[in-house]
Amino acid sequence: MRRTVFYVFIVMVSSFSLLSTDLILPAFPEITTYFSCTEAQTNLTMILFMAVLAIATLFWGPISDRYGRRPVLLIGTGLYFAGSVLCAFSPSITFLIVFRMLQAFGGGAANAVATAIVRDVFDEEAQVKALAVVQSMIMIGPAVAPIIGALLLRIANWQATFFVQAIFGIVVIVGACIMKETNKAPLTVSLFRSLGRLGVVLSNKRFLLLMLLFTLAPFPMLAYVNGSPYIYQNGFGMSSQTYSFFFAATGLVSIFGPMSYSFLARKFTRKNIPVLGFSIMAATGFCILISGYRSPWLFLIFAAIANYCMGFVRPLGTFLMLNTREGDSGSASSLIGASSMLAGSCGMIALSLFTNYLFAVGIIFAVCGLLAVVLWKIYQSAYKETIA
Fold first, then answer.
1. What are the pLDDT digits (tens) for 255-290?
2. Any alpha helices (H) in the chain, and if so which ranges?
3. Domain extents for the chain?
4. Are 285 and 299 spatial neighbours (Cβ–Cβ below 8 Å)?
5. CATH superfamily of 3-386
């Protein structure tokens, strides 16, 4: 593949989780009405999707170290396609939840191998720049997906969002058929031992601390994603179409987060970038608590700034985690993806503990931002040579 085509393909592979969540967000109120279920039951389609996606990512990553990225991607995407079609024909909310879990299990393969493929293809010097480019392009999905979802609701129904996901799966399957295998040095151990590499990577204290630290970005981000349709549509009285534009605005701002990393790296040392990002995120949380309820525009501005800051700390975090070990790219990549998904699920669960979702988002932004600054200071003190 040419480099431009390669970037586009990796972005598509990396976008499975975001597309599968953001595309159906405008349909949440309609799904709740269609199945005569509660908001909590509808939210389960998102929470369990993220939880299964995390577990599946852990499963597929080590397998890709043993058998290669390409076969894992083909099998997983096939399951994702099947799950998407079944979701569209769900006769009840229970079946929708189950089929979303199947969809998540297949999507976990893409989630596991995307970062590993970048690690396979680029040398260490080029990795962080490549990750910044890919992560910026990935954010186009969250910006566009809700608009597409809202438009589909105007001309069709919520089932159409899953047909779109099925088509997306077919496109990735075709790309995987064309793609050459990137894992040039597969592990020769048994499948069981291959899965055991997860424990080896997790036993690295540096990796574990980084993982705990940088999962404090997806935790509030997914809390915001899950709460946003209710905040904007129920709280501020917006239509699904208007909501989709507000949500898209947050996504568009987020695109510039990873893109800003290279610029910020020239202005600040590595040790200061996470402090800057997480401190601003905490500040926006307090701003939401103080005045975010006054206007949807104020809430949008604060949420967009927080998501932007989460974006420009991610390339450095992913780079540092990938390079804690050699030869376990798939396992490391799967743990990075899984921890992000689990953190996102926890963020959604934390959100559900509140009756006021806007207040909850403010609290979560503030607490996660402050905690991340503390953990980064601990990491900086223990591993100064890795962040010079």
1. 787 777 777 777 777 778 889 999 999 999 999 999
2. 3-14, 16-22, 28-34, 39-67, 69-88, 93-121, 124-138, 140-155, 159-178, 191-202, 205-214, 218-229, 240-267, 273-291, 296-322, 329-352, 357-382
3. 3-386
4. no
5. MFS general substrate transporter like domains (1.20.1250.20)
- Please write the tens of the pLDDT for every residue from 232-249: 988 999 987 788 888 888
Q: What is the pTM of this model?
A: 0.69
The Cα 22–Cα 343 span in angstroms is: 17
340, 66 Cβ separation under 8 angstroms: no
Cβ neighbours around 388 below 10 Å, total = 7
Q: What angle do CA 363, 220, 365 make, to 5 degrees?
A: 35
In the Cβ-directed half-sphere of 180, how many Cα atoms lie within 13 Å?
8
Cα–Cα distance for residue pair 244/144, rounded to 1 Å: 9
Short-list 218, 226, 164, 220, CA closest to 28: 226
Of the CA atoms within 13 Å of residue 197, those in its CB half-sphere come to 29
**Distance (Å, rounded) from C-alpha 14 to C-alpha 11?**
5
Residue 231 is given by DSSP the state I
Take residue 145 and report the two structure tokens written for it. Answer: 């997906």
Tokens of residue 263, six digits: 């610029």
